[in-house]
Amino acid sequence: MTQELxxxxxxxxxxxxxxxxxxxxxxxxxSQQSGLPDIAVSPSQGKFLSLLxxxxxxxxxxxxxxxxxxSTIWLARALPADGRLITLEADPKHADVAKANIASAGFEKLxxxxxxxxxxxxxxxxxxxxxxxxxIDADKANIPAYFTWTLEHSHPGSVIVVDNVVRDGRVIEAxxxxxxxxxxxxxxxxxxxxxxxxxxTIQTVGSKGYDGFTLAVVxx
Length: 220
Description:
This protein has helices at 3-17, 22-33, 43-56, 70-76, 92-104, 118-121, 143-152, 179-193, and strands spanning 60-64, 84-89, 111-115, 133-136, 159-163, 197-206, 209-218. It is globular and about 45 Å long. It is of the alpha/beta class. Helix 5 links the parallel strand 2 and strand 3. The protein contains eight helices and seven strands; from the N terminus they run H-H-H-E-H-E-H-E-H-E-H-E-H-E-E. Helix 2 packs antiparallel against helix 5 and helix 3 runs parallel beside helix 4 (70-76). One of its GO terms (biological process) is methylation.
């Protein structure tokens, strides 16, 4: 199995099930032209997130890591007219691009982009919860802290998705000195001991390479 094959399968399924999308294509193009790193979710992953949020009937969504707003737009599409999405972005340049993309996609009234390090921003949104759906796609070293805060601002049935938790398989490297790997491993250890959630991790391959996501549901 090769990266070329994974990408070809993504392109095949995206052409059939996602298709051309002017708003999302424009968001990706603006992000590239602005020099943002090419680390946003793929089209199939974005639609998967949107479908999860729709299935759940989410009305209040929190996202860690807006980047250029690509995944934000997918999540906003799952919201009802009276829904609300708060997305956190540490980099002011990235946040400006995200705001432009979100506005162009027609979600300016539903989405609130908060600029600053998430750990500094979270205390300012304490009263905004509990959240129905949370997507954690920010710096991996701080995932344990993000998860802890999220769990305290969720309710029974809340869905939590954490992205990039496999890292080309390096998550199994217990002796790794990479802060991202150690952050994910601490998060996994927390999950294993946390009775308030039911969770699983799914490995993924595709145009974004070999990685995976963790899906958790807050227990009743």
